[in-house]
Amino acid sequence: MSKSIERLTEIMGRLRDPKTGCPWDLEQDFKTVAPYTLEEAYELVEAIEQNDPKAMVDELGDLLFQIVFHAQMGKEAGLFDLDQVAGQVADKMVERHPHVFGDRDAKNAEAVLVNWEGDKAARREAQAKSEGRTTSALDGVTTALPAATRAVKLQKRAARVGFDWKDPRDIFAKIKEEIGELESEMGKPNNADAMEDEMGDVFFVLVNLARRLEIDPEAALRRTNQKFERRFRALEARLAAQGKRMEDTSLDDMERIWVEIKKEEKKKV
């Protein structure tokens, strides 16, 4: 273990010391820490997308601390420790890369993925048999994933067994169908569940189109979020420079400025 990792584990141990530790850290458990772990992972993704190495170092450190935090709680409960976590993932990586550590061939990244997925499917089937249940192509897709990411994984699993459109352009008809069903539910009384269901169908088919176009829907939406935020802040700044407040500006005037901002952005590209 490196000196830095050793120091980090010692710090975590002191934070969780029952007598002299931090009251907040001592109150935490796996479930309460989990949302922070997820948040740190997303902040790392943001740093990567912004191509900011300094921020990546910072966010990787925050994510590493989350792992150490969970490992410390596991150690206290007599379940596992950091060494076991590292050892298990090391064994897994050797097992799942027989083309590097064994005698299997994989000439390109695509072949690696085919082997990887085949091995995972075999393990899922073996586990299902040991548990006395039938297997499904959708086994092992965790429910904890962000909804769009999980939708992609479910769709990819279904596609492997032939449940998929042959041409991505065929999906546009399904998008129109789902939007029509959503529109038909609008205005009906006491149909919140039906509206949510139909909206979910629209999202799901849009994700399907993104998948077939080899676009990550999460990345695409994050990009659009950033674009919207950038343009909205520019709109606020322009109105402020004119001595105006958004609350007192008509939607038509705001839309006119918004279009100007969009045109200016496109000229810079």
Can you walk me through this structure?
The chain is an all-alpha fold. Helices cover 72% and strands 0% of the residues. The protein is built from 12 helices and no strands.
Key features of this structure:
269 residues, mainly alpha, 12 helices, 72% helix
Question: pLDDT under 50 segments (min length 5)?
Answer: none
Helix content: over 70%
Outline:
globular
Hey, roughly how much beta strand do the residues contain? Answer: under 5%
The largest pleated sheet is described as: none
Mean pLDDT: 92
Distance between the termini: 48 Å
Q: Care to count the β-strands?
A: 0
Which structural class should the secondary elements be placed in?
mainly alpha
Q: Measured on Cα atoms, how large is the radius of gyration?
A: 25 Å
Number of helices, counting only DSSP H or I runs of 4 residues or more: 12
Order of helices and strands: HHHHHHHHHHHH
How do the helices and strands line up, and which of them pair or pack?
Elements: H1 3-15, H2 23-27, H3 30-49, H4 53-76, H5 82-95, H6 98-101, H7 109-130, H8 147-160, H9 171-185, H10 192-212, H11 217-241, H12 251-268
Helix pairs in contact: 1-4, 3-4, 8-10, 9-10, 11-12
